[in-house]
Specification:
globular; seven-stranded mixed beta sheet; alpha+beta
Length: 742
């Protein structure tokens, strides 16, 4: 099946702003990124985290036209979503919005970024939020990796420190921070650093006019504004150790501080082609997976190749030399073309489920390109990028020996031949994308374990024109393959795979709790497009689930929490509403998620100060659920199976907030039911249907149809909250203690 591809239009405005536009007529929502060519490595050395703080303040400060409404609140009120990201050299605010609201949303965001009003109270609140975020993440593998990358920087370079920021680095002098934020915004948030990227169903000419209006809101640079130049960063040190779980090696090839835009495009093409399996023959058998990335997080001035497996440092050195030679030769064939041969189309990766994240990543790369852009006379030879002497690497934990517990298997009682839930057919996905009518696919789910495919499975399938995706959680694991030979590939995958213990989760505790909203079956499950292979795949899945459960490198059971894990304590608390899951109830919770998000965020985060995370999320299925989650690091601490007094107080406030929200039905009666959000890629249509089947329904929410619901019918639905609704409270702390109560 052909991959999605969109005509791309790049524009440069007279004031220095740039735009990247793509028309996608099948979309119902627009995806927009406003990127500023400024990030962590542009901060004043005395205030690490200032760029991150500015990002927070811009999205939470009151808008000029609405004194009590922030960007986050405005989008939740308009059926949109907004987020922001700060990296080394680029900060972007990105959002998705119904296409009919695109103009108002785009001008609202651009106005806030161009002319924000800095409030001392918001600054104080966001310093506390950044500090709490840092406290929760400081021991994560992602933060350890950033610190390791920093050790590879020149000691005199600002990148020699991890730049996330916290209360200590930012300090408590609000007047100083206000002055610093104002200066940083003036120096960097001007039209010469702005890049705007839009993909929408609108005509290109209409989007172009909108980009021009957005760009005019930004002021020109001041005479003393810093240049866009990137200072050389990397020291002579070649390697650093990352102390985290798993066994990976990340090879980094630093880019020159000046490189042509078309060479960056060629590097992106290089990463895409490598991920399609072009490195398989060059890798030794000890490598089980790899991923190539241009401009990875925390090292945006580098090309990255992450290898999973086990290797000694000597083997890594030899591998780096061999891969450098291979990559240099491969890249030379791509970068020898003229600049105009690149960049006229945008093609998201084949495994893309959500178009928005892929577009936002593309937009950040386009914004980064302007910082590397140089006159043709200053272009550097392409082959020098991958010189073996230029490679750095990050080593994960020392490779375990064969006697290490990471390779020990433990047997469970041999299971009886398991019952496998089975579905066969399209279930309407061809209505979402006509191309799926002639496409084969197969999906399998295993409860309570992780499917560990054989080495390099994704790359091997990519070479067979089969798209592969896997999703793991503590509650189960599923794999899906799409392509002409997907059924045969799935049988081979299941026969070669093993089951592994679920990996200890990382990330925010609130995100881990939210995963519990959607139910998953207690038995293995299969969904295929064609009947011919249903029995064979079901038998292969049943055989896999009967085999011994094995721990694998990188998936070891969580050890007892260390003092670093528990000091200070981080706790996520979620109040959930569960309903049986009729179509009308699913629509009601979808409407409530949109309507309640802004109110809950305002009350939980600012009025009651329950935590630095405050969000409403929905689990769609039968039953369906709605979760109101907060996360705090205010020193509350529980032990296994118990709830502390501090947590109890938070629960009581959560109950009070949710009760008050649901006791204002008049506003909900007037609220518009959520607009249909159709899947934007063929793979998304498959995944949405698959998730619906696993959750106990046959129809994803977008295919139920938006039936008019009059006031009496909606009033009757609201009455079901007290009669059929089931409220629970969930607790999860940084020590791994989980507790739920009614």
């Amino acid at each position: 099946m052909a991959s999605l591809s969109f005509q791309q239009t790049c524009i440069s405005l007279h004031n220095g702003a740039q735009g990247v536009l793509a028309q996608a007529p099948h979309l119902t929502r627009a995806h927009v990124s406003i990127a500023i060519a400024a990030g962590y490595l542009d901060e004043p050395r005395t205030l690490p985290g200032l760029a991150h703080l500015l990002e927070h303040v811009l999205t939470t400060a009151p808008l000029e036209a609405f004194s009590n409404i922030s960007l986050l609140t405005w989008f939740s009120q308009h059926q949109g979503s907004l987020n922001a990201h700060t990296d080394d050299y680029v900060t972007d605010v990105h959002f998705s919005i119904p296409a009919e609201t695109l103009e108002a949303a785009a001008l609202t965001v651009a106005s806030q970024l161009a002319r924000p009003a800095f409030s001392p109270s918001v600054i104080c609140a966001e310093v506390a939020a950044i500090d709490a975020e840092w406290q929760a993440r400081q021991h994560s593998s992602a933060m350890q990796r950033l610190s390791a990358i920093a050790t590879l920087s020149d000691s005199q370079h600002i990148g020699a420190d991890c730049r996330h920021g916290n209360a200590q680095t930012l300090g408590s002098d609000t007047a100083l921070l206000l002055e610093a934020l104002t200066a940083f915004h003036r120096d960097h948030y001007h039209d010469g650093r702005v890049s705007i990227a839009i993909i929408s169903p609108w005509a290109t000419e209409t989007m172009t006019r909108l980009v021009k209006r957005m760009a005019t809101l930004f002021s020109p640079p001041t005479p003393c504004a810093p240049s866009l130049a990137i200072a050389p960063r990397w020291s002579r040190q070649l390697s650093a150790k990352v102390a985290s779980t798993g066994n990976t090696v990340e090879l980094l090839w630093p880019l020159p501080s000046a490189i042509a835009r078309h060479q960056l495009t060629a590097l992106s093409d290089t990463a895409d082609r490598l991920n399609q399996g072009l490195l398989m023959e060059q890798l030794p058998g000890l490598i089980t997976d790899y991923r190539a990335t241009l401009a990875p997080n925390g090292a945006t001035d580098a090309f990255s190749l992450t290898l999973s497996g086990t290797a000694t440092q000597e083997q890594v050195k030899a591998l780096a030399a061999a891969l450098s030679e291979r990559l240099a030769a491969f890249f030379a064939t791509l970068s020898g073309t003229a600049p105009n041969d690149h960049g006229n189309r945008w093609q998201p990766p084949a495994e893309t489920v959500q178009l928005a994240p892929a577009w936002f990543a593309h937009a950040r790369r386009q914004a980064l390109a302007r910082r590397f852009a140089t006159p043709p006379s200053e272009h550097q030879p392409a082959a020098s990028l991958f010189a073996a002497s230029n490679a750095r690497w990050l080593l994960d934990n020392a490779s375990p020996s064969p006697s290490s517990p990471a390779f020990d298997a433990f047997d469970r009682q041999p299971a009886a031949y398991p019952t496998v839930q089975r579905w066969c057919g399209q279930y309407g996905v061809s209505d979402d994308f006509a191309a799926l009518a002639t496409t084969a696919w197969a999906a399998c789910f295993v409860p309570g374990a992780v499917v560990a495919p054989s080495p390099l499975t994704a790359q091997r399938l990519a070479r067979q024109a089969i798209v592969f995706k896997q999703e793991n959680s503590p509650h189960g694991s599923w794999v899906i393959a799409m392509g002409s030979q997907a059924n045969h590939a799935m049988v081979a995958l299941l026969e070669d795979a093993v089951l592994a213990v679920s990996k200890a989760q990382e990330g925010l505790l609130a995100q881990q709790l939210i995963q519990r909203l959607t139910p998953l079956p207690a038995t293995p499950a299969v969904w295929v497009s064609h009947q011919a292979e249903l029995d064979t795949i079901s038998q292969a899945l049943a055989a896999l689930t009967c085999r011994s459960l094995t721990t694998t490198a990188g998936n070891t059971p969580r050890a007892a929490p260390s003092a670093a894990d528990t000091q200070p304590a981080n706790v996520a608390i979620m109040r959930t509403l569960i309903l049986p899951g009729s179509p009308a109830q699913r629509w009601l919770l979808a409407a409530a998620e949109k309507y309640h998000s802004a109110t809950f965020f305002q009350q939980a985060r600012y009025e009651h100060r329950l935590g630095y995370v405050a969000a409403v999320r929905r689990g769609d299925g039968a039953p369906c659920s709605l979760g109101y989650v907060v996360q705090t690091s205010n020193g509350v601490q529980s032990s296994a199976g118990t709830v502390s007094a501090g947590e109890k107080r938070i629960e009581e406030k959560l109950i009070s907030i949710t009760n008050s929200i649901w006791q204002t039905p008049d506003k909900i009666l007037q609220a518009q039911l959520p607009a249909l959000t159709l899947p934007e890629t063929p793979f998304a249509a498959l995944v949405l249907q698959w998730q619906s089947l696993l959750a106990g329904t046959h129809q994803p929410l977008h295919r139920l149809g938006q039936q008019p619901i009059d006031s009496p019918a909606l009033t009757q639905l609201l009455s079901q909250i007290s009669t059929l609704g089931h409220w629970q409270t969930h607790w999860l702390d940084s020590a791994g203690h989980y507790f739920v109560s009614d």
